[in-house]
Design goal:
The complex is a heterotetramer, with two copies of chain A and two copies of chain B.
Chain A (H helix, E strand, L loop, with lengths): L1 E6 L2 H7 L3 E6 L5 H9 L12 E4 L2 E3 L11 E4 L6
Parallel strand pairs in A: 1-5
Antiparallel strand pairs in A: 1-2, 3-4, 3-5
Chain B lengths: L1 E6 L5 H8 L6 E8 L3 E2 L2 E10 L1 H19 L3 E7 L1 E4 L3 E9 L2 H18 L2 E7 L4 E3 L12
Parallel strand pairs in B: 1-5
Antiparallel strand pairs in B: 2-7, 3-4, 4-6, 4-8, 5-7, 8-9
Classes of the chains: A alpha+beta, B alpha+beta.
């Protein structure tokens, strides 16, 4: 079991009450497992059915393996421009 | 000349044009997004832009890579501003230069469309009635501002 | 703000942008045509632009009318320069502003495409080999510069 | 019979050797008649099969009637932008 730090921004940071989450994950866990764990937390009502997750500054698929050395972020609906 | 940046200062479109200008090119296309006073029928008084800056710059770089591949445009500069913006402020500017007009124009359009789909930038709109809201273009009532 | 002019002085794209800028609009699209150093494979050293000025301004006005009808863009400024232009000089600039980006971008493209089809302006290109030639985009070897 | 002044520009002005032509026309003549008369002049080799003609600052069709009070111009292939 290790801890993955997840960065939060904008509406997600407000909903979860801070700029990061510390999520415990078994080795070999995927982005999908991470999202499942996050869904159990208070504030998770804000997440859509398939929230976008970035791993090492790229959008990641739910089957991508993720661990404590990765830079992980939950990406709210973007609204640039 | 290819450059993508998230900036906190005022964007100067004329300076971006100067960066891409060259006697090799016959066409310069610029797009600027600005903060307007209404969105989805509500009066807007200001917008706070925030970003996941490191990823936003990487994603902008990838968009410029793709644009260069699609349109053959190598001279392209994009800046997106974050922080507290006032009405009329330029939030984003894209400038592309090419020998011919079609690639320059299509490149600019591609880049702004992609920015709106996938660059991690967010805006918190402040409304005339005192409310504030994170803009969500994926919500049913969401309407893109620019 | 709607204005079309044939000018003999330097075109300042930033000033045209300032003319159309307003807090009602979220999008500004600018296109600038510049004198480039090659055309159709030949080295170009300078271009003399001339116009049937009174008709060119009328035709530009009609194009802006049509653009407003098609895209709902009321804030649009276009200037075309005539006279002896050097490499890199801006020959034409079009700026359109709108609440949303698609009409602004499409309007700008429409206007430059129509200018090239039907505004009575001509260019005499001077080549590196000392020759000079009136550009004829309808000729088989003709290639538009921008 | 009256005289219509035709403005020339760019390559046409060079080919016909000046900025205007004075073309005699019968009353009720059309743009097509005008072009036919111009074709008889030296320099007319430069004209394409259907040259563009402007009457009062608008492109005109060949069946439009034209007279001495109209502002008439022969328009070479345009190359603005």
């Amino acid at each position: 079991m290790s801890i993955v730090t997840v960065q939060l921004f904008a509406s997600y940071a407000e909903s979860f009450g801070g700029p990061t989450l510390e999520i415990p994950l078994d080795p070999g866990s995927t982005v999908g497992d991470l999202v499942d764990n996050i869904r159990a937390l208070p504030g998770a009502y804000i997440l859509p059915e398939s929230p976008r997750v970035a791993v090492n500054r790229r959008f990641a698929s739910f089957d991508q393996v993720v661990g404590p050395r990765d830079e992980v972020a939950l990406i709210p609906p973007v609204a640039g421009g | 000349m290819r450059r993508a940046a998230i900036v906190t200062r005022e964007i100067q479109p004329a300076e971006l044009m100067a960066e891409v200008r060259s006697i090799e090119f016959g066409a310069i296309s610029l797009f600027a997004g600005t903060v307007r006073d209404t969105n989805d029928g509500r009066g807007v008084t200001a917008i706070d832009y925030s970003a996941y800056t490191s990823m936003a710059e990487s994603e902008l770089d990838r968009i410029l890579d793709e644009a260069q591949g699609r349109f053959g445009v190598s001279a392209i500069v994009v800046e997106h501003r974050v922080g507290a913006l006032a009405l009329g402020d330029v939030s984003v500017a894209i400038v592309a230069a090419h020998a011919h007009r079609a690639p320059a124009l299509e490149c600019t359009r591609f880049v702004i469309d992609e920015i709106k789909k996938r660059v991690p930038i967010w805006k918190l709109e402040h409304y005339a009635d005192g409310a504030r809201e994170w803009v969500d273009p994926t919500a049913s009532s969401g309407v893109a501002t620019a």
